[in-house]
Prior knowledge:
The protein is an alpha+beta fold. 36% of the residues lie in helices and 15% in strands. The chain has helices at residues 2-19, 24-31, 35-43, 50-60, 117-126, and strands spanning 81-84, 103-105, 112-114, 131-135, 141-145, 148-151.
Amino acid sequence: xxxxxxxxxxxxxxxxxxxxxxxxxxxxxxxxxxxxxxxxxxxxxxxxxxxxxxxxxxxxxxxxxxxxxxxxxxxxxxxxxxxxxxxxxxxxxxxxxxxxxxxxxxxxxxxxxxxxxxxxxxxxxxxxxxxxxxxxxxxxxxxxxxxxxxxxxxx
Length: 155
């Protein structure tokens, strides 16, 4: 449950940030956060404090309540099967690029960009070994390979 809420919150924050036309880096600066912390919030891997929630709402010029108004697009199907990397991370909706909202998948030499999570996931399903880009713990984006498939948030 905790991871689901964090992921939905992060997707909502990212959706509102992108709609406001701010880059992740510029928005993090506006909030007084490190870009890596902002990335963790948007990916759902950070347990955000109440103070940080208030800061995010003020920077986005929305109510705190608006940060928790999740729609169906923000609530990925928990029964959905996704690829998992050896470190336990998985391909999920929070991995959209902070620059353009796309998902990059495929071999290093022939990566493709998809504008929707579902399209990218469908492409991954057709690969012999699913490969996608995601940030590491330092916030640097790199290519990872699937070692198994499992339910979304089945960590």
